[in-house]
């Protein structure tokens, strides 16, 4: 049910996105703390919704559907905002682009496979990929702002940039893994054909 606690936590990760976007435009002392705080809380729910779903035996199709969507929306939003504000710049835009393109590719593949009733479960490596992405973006938020959220001795921006490249590498690998898993269905006869009635018209070839 949508009112189960794990599903509510997943939904909160989606509903907080407008607040995260607005927080990027804050000025003054809180300009870096607020988006980082909101993002960190949203990222923590990614662990607890799955943990609670397992321990409370509240795993559901709705949760499996919403959880990766919530992750993708949150990560994509933060990447786009930090690129727009120059917090991800130069060559580091490339891994950010790889991450976004992979998510679009996998989402399209999942949509196709759902039509032919083929399930592609989220792999353990893909979960690690998502976790590293979230950690990378958190460090970039902490280190690339103007109010020194992190101590000067901790190179938060550098850690975030390296983690972003690691995440992009895992993104490519898991994206290829998903594509390979679904490739055999792309050219097979699994694609549902529309029923032919007495008034159906044969499409032009």
Structure overview:
This protein has helices at residues 5-15, 17-23, 30-55, 61-84, 93-115, 124-143, 156-186. With 205 residues, the protein is mostly helical. The chain has one domain (5-186): Four Helix Bundle (Hemerythrin (Met), subunit A) (Up-down Bundle), CATH 1.20.120. Helix 2 packs antiparallel against helix 3, helix 4 (61-84) runs antiparallel to helix 5 (93-115) and helix 5 runs parallel beside helix 7 (156-186). It is globular and about 55 Å long. The relative contact order is 0.12.
Summarize the topology:
Layout: H1 5-15, H2 17-23, H3 30-55, H4 61-84, H5 93-115, H6 124-143, H7 156-186
Helix pairs in contact: 1-3, 1-4, 2-3, 3-4, 3-6, 4-5, 4-6, 5-7, 6-7
List the keywords:
205 residues; Four Helix Bundle (Hemerythrin (Met), subunit A); mainly alpha; disordered C terminus; 69% helix
How many H/I helices? Answer: 7
Q: What is the CATH class designation?
A: Mainly Alpha
CATH superfamily assignment? CDP-alcohol phosphotransferase transmembrane (TM) domain
Which structural class fits the helix and strand makeup? mainly alpha
CATH topology value: Four Helix Bundle (Hemerythrin (Met), subunit A)
* β-sheet strand percentage: under 5%
What sort of overall outline do the alpha carbons produce when their principal axes are compared?
globular
Number of domains: 1
Helicity, in percent?
Answer: 55-70%
Task: Tell me the quaternary state.
Answer: single chain
**Uncertain segments:** 189-205
Q: Biggest sheet, open or closed, and with what strands and sense?
A: none
In angstroms, what separates the terminal alpha carbons? 46 Å
Please tell me the overall pLDDT. 80
| Name given to the CATH architecture | Up-down Bundle
Radius of gyration, in Å, reads 20 Å
* Count of individual beta strands: 0
N-to-C SSE series?
HHHHHHH
